[in-house]
């Protein structure tokens, strides 16, 4: 039986849940939820803090340095994994490697017009990380995507200009031609190599 019975308690508990979920989404090693609750109560009630501002600033600085070091190490691992994958992939039959480092294989060869950098195109695509994790797919949405050739990641911009309408390529894109050291969204980490199946349906402008 819950000990929170009133409307106000339910709303208060909900606020705590939201704060807890935010902390869980971006925690640091050693985060102490009881200390978080004590600090929250002290601030709300106007009590004298048990930890000085100087101690808090110093703790934040150390924790931030630790997290940045962890992120840098993870980024190195991602970059190394992507580079190793691409190096092996380049040896496979049917793989073409361009001067920029973009790799592709032809799944379907079309015979239509090729877009230019100034074109707007309609495509279907399916994007995964090198471990197979799907991060975006117009096929899954059932809706083609339209965009300027110059308005996408560099690997796409290069590849689209090689594709006559009706062509379908599988692209293997190094991080420097994708989202680089920042990554994108929650699924594409920094220095991630990406794989896309891209089908050029039409040039619409």
Automatic annotation (TrEMBL):
It holds the Pfam family FKBP_N. Keywords: Isomerase, Rotamase. GO terms for molecular function: isomerase activity. The keyword Phosphoprotein does not apply. PROSITE patterns: FKBP_PPIASE (PS50059). It catalyses: [protein]-peptidylproline (omega=180) = [protein]-peptidylproline (omega=0). Its EC number is 5.2.1.8. Gene3D superfamilies: 3.10.50.40, Peptidyl-prolyl cis-trans isomerase, FKBP-type, N-terminal domain. Residues 118-204 form the PPIase FKBP-type domain. InterPro entries: PPIase_dom_sf (IPR046357), PPIase_FKBP_dom (IPR001179), PPIase_FKBP_N (IPR000774), PPIase_FKBP_N_sf (IPR036944). Belongs to the FKBP-type PPIase family. This is Peptidyl-prolyl cis-trans isomerase.
């Amino acid at each position: 039986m819950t000990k929170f019975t009133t409307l106000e308690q339910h709303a208060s508990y909900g606020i705590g849940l939201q704060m807890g979920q935010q902390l869980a989404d971006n925690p640091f090693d050693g985060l102490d939820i009881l200390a978080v609750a004590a600090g929250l109560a002290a601030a709300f009630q106007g009590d004298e803090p048990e930890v000085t501002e100087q101690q808090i600033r110093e703790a934040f600085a150390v924790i931030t340095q630790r997290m940045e070091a962890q992120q840098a190490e993870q980024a190195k691992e991602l970059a190394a994994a992507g580079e190793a994958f691409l190096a092996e992939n380049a040896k496979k039959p049917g793989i073409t490697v361009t001067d920029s480092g973009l790799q592709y294989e032809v799944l379907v060869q079309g015979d239509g017009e090729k877009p230019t950098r100034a074109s707007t195109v309609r495509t279907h695509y399916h994007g995964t990380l090198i471990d197979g994790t799907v991060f975006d797919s117009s096929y899954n949405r059932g809706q083609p995507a339209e965009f300027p050739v110059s308005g996408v990641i560099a690997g796409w911009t290069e590849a689209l200009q090689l594709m006559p309408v009706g062509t379908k390529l599988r692209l293997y894109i190094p991080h420097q031609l994708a989202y680089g050291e920042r990554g994108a969204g929650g699924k594409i980490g920094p220095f991630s190599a990406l794989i896309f199946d891209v089908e050029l349906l039409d040039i619409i402008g």
